[in-house]
Structures are given as C-alpha cells and as structure tokens.
C-alpha cells in the first residue's frame, strides 16, 4: 500500500512532526509512504524527513504578494499539487484510467493524507483518489480579523471553500478533543464525523554521546538550574509570559542556585513575524535586566530538544488555547514536568498537580509553580514518574500506529 502525504511547508513545527510520525507509523506496518509538498528546506526541517521520498511541486510559487494573500496563494499552491498527483500518480479507479493507458504505468496511490489546507480534496476526489484530511485546527479561525469590507468578502469565499472541501474527504482526523469541538461548531457538516488521533512524541533514540556537544552549545554550567520554553518564535505562542514569569522568579532571590531560562524554537528568516518577535523577546530580556540569564536558541535539532527536556527542571508551555501542543507530551515522555496555560490541548495531556501544573495567564502563578518544582525534590520526582507513566498509557507510538493503520485500511477497503 502506498500512502501519499500532501503538506504545504515541511519545516519545523507540531503539524510537521505529526505528519512525520504518521509516516513512520505506516512504514512500521510495511506500507510505502511519500511526501509531496509545496516547500522543503533541508537546512530547516526535522532530521527524520531526510529518510522519506519528498517531492517539491512548484517551489517557485509565491507565498504572498506584498505581504498579503497568504491563504489564497496557499490554497492555489495545494491545488497545483493535487493536479500534479492526478497527472503523475494513479489509483485503480482513476477518472482517465481507461482512456489514457500511460496513466496505468505511473505510481499507484492507495490513499492521500492531506493536512492544513483542504483545497486539494475536490480535485483528488474528482479523479477518484481516497482521501484522509488531518485537521490540526480550522484555518478559517487562524486568520487575523480585519475591518476592511473587501477583505471580509475575500476571506468569506476562502472559508466557504474550506468548509466544502474539508467535508468532501473520505475520512477526517482531528488532533484533540478541543479541536474536534471547534471543528464541529465551525467546519464540519452535521452528518460528518471526525475521529481524534492524538499526535505522539518523537520515537527517535536520544544520542547520549552528543550530550557534551549540546551542553557546549548551551554554555551553562551543569550545576545550574534550567527552565525551558520550546515554541516557534510567533506572537501567538505567548513567550513573553515565560520571560515575565522568569523575571518574577529570580527577582525574589529565594533560590540560591543560578537559574537560566532557555527559549528555543523554530525560526524562519522568510517570515517577518519571526524576525520581529525574536527582537521583541530579546529587547524584553534586556529591559528586565535578565538577558544574562536567558539563552535564545533557533531551529534546534531533535537531539538538542531532547537534551533540553532531560536537562531542564521543568518546561514552560505558554500558548493560550493551543490546538493540541506536542511539546508537553514530548517533555513528559522523558520525565520532565510541564507548567502550561489551562486551556486547549494541554488540558487533555497534563494532569494538574500530578504530572505538572495548569494555570492562568499570570506570570506570578507561573513563577510560583516554577519555585515549587525547583525547591521540592519529592514533588519533582512525583511529577517525573507520573509523566512517564501517563505518556506510556495514553500517547504511546504503538497505540497511535495501530489506530492510524486501521483508519487507512478502512478508507482503502470501503
């Protein structure tokens, strides 16, 4: 069985990691997989993507026009990918299979898994491809609000197409109960059902022999305490909360050890928001006079990320209403407690006062919980043990693999 994944930008993020783990899961079931994407940069990607066959289609296609029309251009770019699949891949029920024998000589695709942008689905359905749509979150709810009347019409048309194209999928997967509730309210038809398939932590083996390399890059004494935030450098990730909470923690001077905050995450030089937000964060660290205690790391690889989880006393996860959030379960899988905002996906993955803490958008509350975990060894040990057990019971790769395989098998054979 061949499964083709269609994705926009195969960079560094939770959506990309979810698709990579889907591919790994299917490979473990002796299925063939390939990625057909709009953009792929081998210098800014998860290392594991290099193990898969990746085809980039129309990489020349613009992402925006003078900083505008991102959604529309992504919409058309994914449609170009669907046309590419119709021309250069086949299925046993291909629309032109009988009329153009040459199509029968192309690679046969059993099912296409699409995420983020659903505009490819109608064309693929027209040519009788089986489709699965993985909904991380309705795109219509991610756009910024504008008062401009022309923009409102433009966005309404795109939203309408998103609804219709999404509901044409043979099967719909969502990443969390929170996303399912939102999708049922805004995106899915009344008679359209979706299944929750939680993303899982990366299963790559952590390379202990490179720990000294990671430690050297970090530049922090092994005797010092580390608190870490792992997120893309975007405003919606609310990283300013981590800085504000860390400032409150070290300002009271109740902890004798040296403490450092590591802010690590994906950074794309093509995106003005990443550049501007990174500067905002560094300026804030200078303004609060904590810059000497803060380390900023861009585009860390998987080994460095897992090293940070092992090295950190706890993880700060600051986004509000996160759709799922892979970082908390990645950290908990290694036994690192997480302090997160009490909304969205983290409410499904973190058990308050058992594996970590859930709290309001309040720097003081975050700082108090950090203090508790740093100063109370028995609390830290309890959280660490419970976190590992929770991930093994609810978010294991084997459970994820079995469920995804059943979905693909159902779509192909029904």
TrEMBL record:
Membrane topology, from the record: Single-pass membrane protein
Cellular component, GO, one term: endoplasmic reticulum membrane
UniProt entry keywords in alphabetical sequence: Endoplasmic reticulum, Glycosyltransferase, Membrane, Transferase, Transmembrane, Transmembrane helix
Cell compartment(s), UniProt: Endoplasmic reticulum membrane
EC number: 2.4.1.132, 2.4.1.257
SUPFAM superfamilies to which the protein is assigned, alphabetical: UDP-Glycosyltransferase/glycogen phosphorylase
Protein name per Swiss-Prot or TrEMBL: Alpha-1,3/1,6-mannosyltransferase ALG2
Source species of the chain: Intoshia linei
Origin organism lineage: Eukaryota, Metazoa, Spiralia, Lophotrochozoa, Mesozoa
